[in-house]
Write a structure and sequence with these properties.
- This protein is an all-alpha fold.
- The chain has one domain (3-298).
- Helices cover 77% and strands 0% of the residues.
- Helix 1 crosses helix 13 (244-255).
- The protein starts with a helix and ends with a helix.
């Protein structure tokens, strides 16, 4: 990858990592499901009136809109309101990598490599440490909600695997149009029957948070990510996503003043090691063996 592409990849990773802290700020005033619905409404309107429907079956848009927009973000925002810190949420959500590997093997009959299997096992042991933790950065309830959100994200990944030469930015705009009505309905039933009053009393902080998690984190970041995937091999681009939880935890520490216990740091290190081994293990092994072979020939 050239320097420009690397900078774009790091920009996307930074935007998505900081996104968790911004969500936390937005949830200080707005209930989580309503906040999530407003986020997708801002993304969808007025864009859907200018962007043509993507060339893919409608069920692809509806499926990703349901699993990614409604379920994943709904559960994540609910967990982040009181039951999970921003930094830990950004880390636990990466369980989607493990779930995607497992679902791809079960549903799509894709054969997982030994590196993916080993990495998944390592990462799962790290997630297990959080179930044993009693330090307060995440409750058991929050942990379960975020893992369910990660599972829903993995389901949407399987649907997106079926996309063929689809403009990712256009796709996300139409996906965003699916989520608001179900989320607003759930918010009315579960959170408040006076959503208009809540919105009217919202301060600039929450509106700025909505603008960040909407147009910036969704449209701008996904547009850049789609540009990178279109210009470079996926194997060169996707490893950058491993930096998201690291940026998320650093951002939460700087913006929100969150602190992570030693026990959680160990669990996080184990998870990141497992994810790294799952994504990069095969290439790292080839690189090591290749260098060893060169040394033998030289000697």
């Amino acid at each position: 990858m050239d320097f420009k592409s690397i900078m774009c990849a790091l920009l996307v990773v930074t935007v998505w990592g900081v996104n968790f802290s911004v969500i936390k700020l937005g949830l200080e005033e707005l209930p989580p499901i309503l906040f999530s619905g407003l986020r997708f409404l801002i993304v969808a309107l007025p864009a859907i009136f200018f962007i043509p429907f993507v060339k893919t079956p409608v069920w692809h848009v509806l499926g990703v809109g349901l699993f990614l927009g409604v379920i994943k973000f709904g559960l994540l925002f609910v967990a982040m309101e009181k039951d999970a810190s921003a930094g830990i949420a950004s880390l636990i959500l990466q369980a989607q990598v493990v779930f995607t590997i497992v679902l791809s093997a079960v549903v799509l009959k894709e054969q997982a490599s030994r590196f993916q299997i080993a990495g998944a096992v390592i990462a799962c042991s790290g997630f297990g440490l959080f179930f044993l933790s009693e330090t307060g950065s995440v409750t058991l309830y929050g942990m379960v909600l975020i893992l369910c959100a990660a599972l829903s994200w993995a389901v949407s990944n399987l649907i997106m695997k079926q996309l063929k030469q689809v403009n990712l930015l256009h796709f996300m705009v139409w996906v965003s149009a699916v989520a608001p009505l179900p989320l607003f309905g759930l918010s009315y039933i579960l959170e408040s029957d006076t959503p208009v009053t809540l919105i009217q009393n919202t301060s600039a902080q929450s509106w700025l948070a909505l603008l960040y998690v909407g147009p910036v984190s969704t449209l701008l970041a996904f547009a850049l990510w789609g540009w990178l995937l279109g210009r470079h091999r996926a194997a060169a681009v996707t490893p950058f996503a491993l930096l998201i939880p690291l940026v998320g935890m650093i951002g939460a520490s700087l913006i929100l003043g969150e602190q992570i216990s030693l026990f959680e740091m160990i669990g996080g290190a184990v998870i990141l090691s497992g994810l790294t081994f799952s994504v990069l293990g095969e290439r790292l092994c080839r690189a090591v063996l290749g260098r060893a072979g060169l040394k033998q020939k030289a000697s």
